[in-house]
Amino acid sequence: MGRSGIIGCGMVAAISLLAQGPPPPSFPPQQLDNLVSRVALYPDPLLAQVLAAATYPEQIPDAARWADEHHYLTGDALARDIQEDQLPWDPSVQALLPFPSVLSMMASDINWTRDLGDAFLAQNQDVMDAVQRMRRQARDFGYLRSNGQVIVSGGPYIEIAQVNPGIVYVPYYDPQIVFARPRPGFAVSRGITFGFGIGLGPAFRVWGWGGNRISWNTHTVIINDAEWRRGWVNRGTYVHPYTMRRSGPPRRIEEHHEIRERDARERQAEHGRKRVEDHRREERKEEHRRDR
Prior knowledge:
Elements: H1 3-20, H2 29-36, H3 44-53, H4 60-69, H5 75-84, H6 91-94, H7 100-108, H8 110-122, H9 124-140, E1 150-152, E2 160-162, E3 167-168, E4 171-173, H10 175-178, E5 192-194, E6 198-199, E7 213-215, E8 220-223, E9 226-227, H11 253-291
Antiparallel strand pairs: 1-2, 3-6, 4-5, 7-8, 8-9
Helix pairs in contact: 2-9, 4-7, 8-9
């Protein structure tokens, strides 16, 4: 092969590598343990959504802001606003909008979120194993156990299920405490606390809630009753099946809010006109009675 042929083959190989994108990352077990420690004790359905959403780190900050601005909404009202705003983010990210604290945690350390997502894309089974290692530590030290919010299975794989399938409680804990042997006199019952339960009824089914879980024996994340198959190679093209309607380019969120505010003002003005008319009608009736 001549010099020009060698150069041509080299250029083809270089172009092929560029098309494939950067090589997948490789996280050692100890680093994976640190990565998953913040979320390893989440109930399995919530953990499944967090792992999937972490593969879209660029969408997390905007979603966190939206969730914070709408923190006063719950239940069907929240689901309706998410649908009406035609939000542009992946459904796995939208699924976390009922959990402002979770999105805030992910947005506040976006490098951690990106690393968690990359690890899940490139080393799915290793991430699952790391979660199990951390859960065993928390259980063996007495922190992780069944209570009024979650049910912790005994093994061989440690599952964390919700007591009420329709209500999710987010656990709050310090990884430096619950994954270490408790110091003398420390009450392990205080190691993990829970906030208010988040009700996720049928209205949230379109984002996978009610059909999301983790099959630990096969190292499989199930969302919307379908296996999550997004990996490092197909991360640019994979679309997970959801029942929610996928629209074209979304309308600006600000524009949608302006329309709703305008409609509210119009309804308020119409209500005011009706009250004035009712008042005048009563005045005419009173004048008629006096004339008689």
